């Protein structure tokens, strides 16, 4: 009897480290199972293998760079998808931070400019915005500053569109982050003689950014997925490559399953990193 | 109410009061339809310790926050060290650098170590270099009794320690005036004394202080004057001995009987 109780106590104590049917991430097993199955098909089935090689595209490397400039270096398929996401997200971070700061500004003019931008973007579908930015806004702006619209590649237009769209989403993330920092932090900074700008830069923003890092990570994953939309501009990212492959070989099943496999393996990897990071953050915050 | 400070002989006698350093004249503050402060006037002399007491919602904190314009008065005027705060040409940041403030919730900067909390404003506002700012920070940490916590982060400290760091952070700016907004109200009982001791030490050192608190023991032993406020107005203002033992107004008597009786 006593021994039984003792065992139960031990069970309770070791709950975190022990196998638990209820806590075990079965969903991850299912997804990894799908990914492994796809990998097996790609390695053994010639149709899947052909689709995979076509969609992921070639990496131009240094030789490609010397021959075809930046486009050659980037290659096609997976490199375009990753490159587009990274560059667009970096620009979106800058736009988002500026618009987020504008959103919480006490200056009526600045605040309304920021709100107009954010609400405008949020009110129009992403796909429609990609067309509008790529075919209307980029040509108008470039001709206004004296650059020929023709010289801007479709990929650059796609990146611009994604950056402008995500800038508005990230602005709201930054705004939420800034508002999550208690007013007492600003008051303490101001009471020491810091002006509003210094208080924002040295006290509020560092804490705000830390608070929204998980949300930014989620938006990065969302942007990786939405980068597929720029295939409508005929940018040769993995989605466009899959469409091309499907169109020319009529291997729809292989093309789109491989495409699904590629996106899912990237997003799952990122989301696992994010989960791990959030867990670490929670432990540190205690 | 339990007194956290053993009563000592009043030290007011051996302190010299200087010129008027805070002059509040007919201050009004209205929040929406609520009048938080109505016609408050007070003059504080250099080296003086003024304690403001009163029931919650009586406008004590609002008055204190007006002194460094964390709240902008609806009407009336405030002069700090001869500078008219309501004048549009006044650089309020320069005034605030001379007026330290300690908050109920400590408000230490959570992303910075204790040392960085204390050096940030010194470096930005006082333009001290890193080494000088850190030396001053350590000096102030020794003064409040926790130099060993210099590299800790706020979340690793107890409430009492955090509040002492907050005091050190203000003192490192060499302020002419220190404002305390219920500095012990968020603390566990056993930590109140360590904060009050630091404040008492400051008062003995001749710092000009305006303190909003419910610690009557502190008021009795450190204050030159106690101001009793109710509903945004000054009801009574006197030396602590007089106010506590012989209050003139019924409202004051009622308040004191309520907080001292148990």
Write structural notes for this entry:
The complex is a heterodimer of chains A (286) and B (262). Chain A is an all-alpha fold and 286 residues long. Chain A contains 12 helices and no strands. The longest helix of chain A is centred in the last third of the chain and has 34 residues, at 252-285. The mean pLDDT of chain A is 86. Chain B is α/β, with parallel strands linked by helices and 262 residues long. Chain B is 35% helix and 24% strand. Chain B is built from 9 helices and 10 strands. Chain B has helices at residues 60-67, 92-97, 114-124, 130-143, 159-171, 189-204, 216-222, 240-245, 250-260; strands spanning 20-31, 34-45, 49-53, 75-80, 83-84, 99-102, 177-181, 208-212, 225-230, 233-238. In chain B, strands 6-7-8-3-9-10 form a 6-stranded mixed sheet, with helices on both faces. Chain B has a 4-stranded antiparallel sheet with strand order 2-1-4-5, with helices on one face. The interface between A and B is medium-sized, with 20 and 26 residues.
Name the features:
heterodimer, A: 286 residues, mainly alpha, flat, B: 262 residues, alpha/beta, 6-stranded mixed sheet, 4-stranded antiparallel sheet, 9 helices, 10 strands, 24% strand
Q: In short, what is this structure?
A:
Chain A has 12 helices and no strands. With 286 residues, chain A is mainly alpha-helical.
Question: What are the SSEs and their pairings?
Answer:
The complex is a heterodimer of chains A (286) and B (262).
Chain A: H1 2-13, H2 26-44, H3 46-56, H4 61-74, H5 78-103, H6 108-122, H7 126-144, H8 154-180, H9 183-191, H10 196-226, H11 238-249, H12 252-285
Helix pairs in contact in A: 2-3, 2-12, 3-11, 3-12, 5-6, 5-8, 6-8, 7-8, 8-10, 9-10, 10-12, 11-12
Chain B: E1 20-31, E2 34-45, E3 49-53, H1 60-67, E4 75-80, E5 83-84, H2 92-97, E6 99-102, H3 114-124, H4 130-143, H5 159-171, E7 177-181, H6 189-204, E8 208-212, H7 216-222, E9 225-230, E10 233-238, H8 240-245, H9 250-260
Parallel strand pairs in B: 3-8, 3-9, 6-7, 7-8
Antiparallel strand pairs in B: 1-2, 1-4, 4-5, 9-10
Helix pairs in contact in B: 3-4, 3-5, 4-5, 5-6
């Amino acid at each position: 009897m006593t021994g039984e109780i003792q065992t139960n106590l031990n069970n309770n104590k070791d709950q975190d480290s022990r196998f638990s049917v209820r806590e075990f991430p079965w969903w991850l097993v299912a997804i990894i199972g799908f990914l492994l199955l796809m990998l097996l098909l790609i390695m053994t089935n010639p149709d899947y293998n052909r689709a995979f090689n076509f969609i992921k595209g070639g990496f131009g490397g240094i030789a490609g760079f010397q021959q075809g400039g930046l486009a050659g270096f980037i290659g096609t398929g997976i490199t375009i998808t990753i490159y587009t996401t990274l560059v667009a997200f970096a620009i979106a971070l800058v736009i988002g931070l500026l618009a987020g700061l504008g959103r919480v500004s006490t200056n009526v003019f600045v605040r309304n400019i920021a709100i107009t931008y954010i609400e405008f973007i949020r009110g129009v579908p992403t796909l429609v915005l990609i067309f509008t930015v790529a075919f209307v806004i980029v040509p108008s702006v470039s001709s206004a500053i004296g650059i020929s619209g023709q010289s801007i590649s479709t990929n650059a237009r796609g990146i611009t569109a994604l950056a402008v769209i995500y800038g508005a989403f990230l602005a709201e993330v930054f705004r939420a982050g800034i508002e999550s920092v208690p007013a007492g932090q600003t008051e303490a900074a101001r009471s020491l003689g810091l002006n509003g700008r210094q208080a924002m830069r040295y006290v509020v923003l560092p804490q705000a950014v830390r608070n929204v890092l998980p949300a930014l990570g989620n938006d990065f994953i969302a942007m990786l997925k939405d980068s597929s939309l720029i295939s409508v501009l005929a940018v040769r990212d993995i989605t466009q490559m899959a469409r091309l492959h499907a169109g020319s070989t009529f291997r729809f099943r292989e093309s789109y399953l491989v495409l699904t496999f590629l996106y899912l393996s990237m997003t799952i990897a990122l989301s696992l990193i994010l989960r791990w990071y959030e867990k670490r953050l929670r432990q540190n915050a205690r | 109410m339990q007194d956290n400070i053993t009563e000592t002989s009043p030290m007011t006698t051996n302190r010299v009061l200087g010129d008027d350093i805070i002059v509040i004249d007919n201050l009004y503050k209205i929040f929406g339809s609520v009048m938080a402060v109505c016609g408050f006037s007070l003059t504080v002399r250099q080296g003086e310790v003024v304690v403001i007491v009163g029931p919650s919602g009586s406008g004590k904190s609002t008055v204190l926050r007006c002194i460094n314009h964390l709240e902008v008065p609806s009407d009336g005027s405030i002069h700090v060290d001869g500078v008219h705060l309501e004048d549009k040409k006044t650089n309020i940041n320069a005034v605030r650098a001379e007026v330290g403030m300690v908050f109920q919730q400590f408000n230490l900067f959570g992303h910075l170590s204790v040392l960085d909390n204390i050096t940030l404003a010194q470096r930005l506002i006082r333009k001290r270099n890193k080494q000088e700012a850190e030396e001053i920070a350590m000096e102030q940490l020794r003064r409040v009794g926790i130099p060993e916590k210099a590299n800790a982060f706020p979340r690793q400290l107890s409430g009492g320690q955090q509040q002492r760091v907050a005091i050190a952070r203000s003192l490192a700016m060499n302020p002419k005036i220190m404002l305390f907004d219920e500095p012990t109200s968020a603390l566990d009982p056993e930590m109140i004394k360590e904060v009050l001791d630091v404040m008492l030490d400051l008062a003995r050192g001749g710092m000009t202080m305006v303190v909003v608190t419910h610690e009557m023991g502190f008021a009795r032993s450190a204050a030159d004057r106690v101001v009793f406020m109710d509903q945004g107005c000054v009801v009574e203002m006197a030396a602590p001995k007089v106010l506590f033992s012989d209050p003139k107004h019924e409202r004051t008597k009622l308040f004191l009987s309520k907080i001292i009786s148990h």
